[in-house]
Amino acid sequence: MTTRKNPTPNLNASGMSSASSGKPTEKYIGLTGAQIFHELMHEHGVEHMFGYPGGAILPVFDAIHESKYFKFILNRHEQGAGHMAEGYARASGKPGIVLVTSGPGATNTVTPIADAYMDGTPLIVFTGQVATGAIGTDAFQEADVTGITRPCTKWNVLIKDVRDIPRRINEAFHIATTGRPGPVLVDLPKDVTATVLKEAVHADIHLPGYNVRELGTSSEIARAAELINRAKRPVFYVGQGVILAGATDLLRACAKRANIPVTTTLQGLGAFDETDARSIHMLGMHGSAYANWAMRDADLVIAVGARFDDRVTGNPAKFAPAARQAEREGRGGFIHFDIAPEQINKAVPVTIGVEGDARKNLELLLPMLESSPRKEWFERLHTWMKETPFRYKDDTREFHMKPQAVVEELDNQTDGEAIITTGVGQHQMWAAQFYTFKHPRHWITSGGLGTMGYGVPASIGAKLARPDKHVINIDGDGSFCMTCMEMVTAAQYGIAAKTIILNNDFQGMVKQWQDKFYEGRYSHTEMHNPNFVALTDAMNCKGFRCSKKADLPKVMADFLAHDGPAVLDALVEKHEHVYPMLPAGKTVDDMILGDFK
Length: 597
Hints:
By secondary structure, this protein is α/β, with parallel strands linked by helices. It folds into three domains: 6-194, 3-Layer(aba) Sandwich (Rossmann fold), CATH 3.40.50; 218-387, TPP-binding domain (Rossmann fold); 393-578, 3-Layer(aba) Sandwich (Rossmann fold). It is 36% helix and 15% strand. It has 24 helices and 20 strands. The strands form four sheets. The chain has a six-stranded parallel beta sheet with strand order 3-2-4-5-7-6, sandwiched between helices. Helix 17 crosses helix 18. It is globular, with a radius of gyration of 25 Å. The relative contact order is 0.11.
């Protein structure tokens, strides 16, 4: 058995955005709408843009021809452009920018838009549209993209007048990057981008209904500090909101000062150093048993930048029963820090809700916290950690490695310092369990939407954002096949993103459910894959393959040392399951730990 361990322009004091009282600007007079777009990208500091051209957006593509402001990356599919922009945004903290044409070009971005909406990723998608006079006539490549994306964007707009382009694009950047970040979409009809602006226009944002509250009230934070100081068995439950707020240092300071264990969501990995003695790693459906038990037994749950997702709570009515009992007795309960007021009390009723920016609110909380040894609590947690670590049965056979061993070897050879992206499935969970996350923005995956195919393009976008880092996509054969042609994009632009395929010839997570709950009936989950090494080489990348554990260290080292884009086809055991496993809608007492004897 083997074990392991932005800025917010034009905001007034209340957080309400407002128009500037200045005069209209003349700087865009004489430019076409497309040229104005180009200038605005420069003003917002855009360095990379992802997308695909087409007829309705050609005026914009002509305006950015040989741009000196930013580098345009031509993708092989618009979905790949969206995920690549997401990876760039998650690694850099800057908004990802997408530029595509109308109709199918626009609709192909819906999946990454919905993905960004679920995971709070700042994404700005510019879509071409048919000329304004043709809208509503079922013109060639017309689609009501603002109607289609309204449910999965923070905000979207169809611009019908060239005079509105500066203000609307500035508003798009503002909305995407403030509050809980998310995707916005700007639809650009072809005649609007081809029209020359002939008069001065207001370019400042004017969003009278858009509010961002940055600070909780002093009484809320004081009450929260009082509950924390009184708690015997508190736990920090931390999500990606801490990373987005740039608050990881303050979280660590709070945990250290008050001596509180920390568990993270899947998207929160890296918010707290997993080598810290207070870390109890990831919780949830495939999280550590000890983190889930800690949530069950805690008398106070302190959620920061997390949204009580169903993959964490299981059955919400039975979630964290000790904290609920402590709440009834007036000595504990639930504290929820979140930038999005709609998330507070949405899934789990809380004792204290603190709305606002996590960094600013933790700054206020920190000096109010008192140190406590919490000896019995940590003894209980550390006993569980020794008894039920992430683990698996090692395999000494000559063929088909254990997938967990591949992730462990990557962790060892990169010392936990690589940026990891993933697709969705078993490989995603093994990556989360067996790679050591110490830093924010080093883990990039699709959480809320669970988008297969996310990993390859996300890794390329992340590598563009962080060329100084190893960026490795840990993928499954199913996920890889969905977007693998983006490796051609990596080759064209010399982007040294790398992918490891945990190749088990199955849609692994679905197979696991079929094993557990459908008596092993593998209905359309077996994959008949190509030769991934030959495919990779055909895409002008470097292919590697490993099937024996004894060969893994050498093959991994060669793979990592390659100075261009590469794929490692790792042949792994197809009947391996991800444990622990908390069945949907159940409680932590129903967790399946697996047989490791």
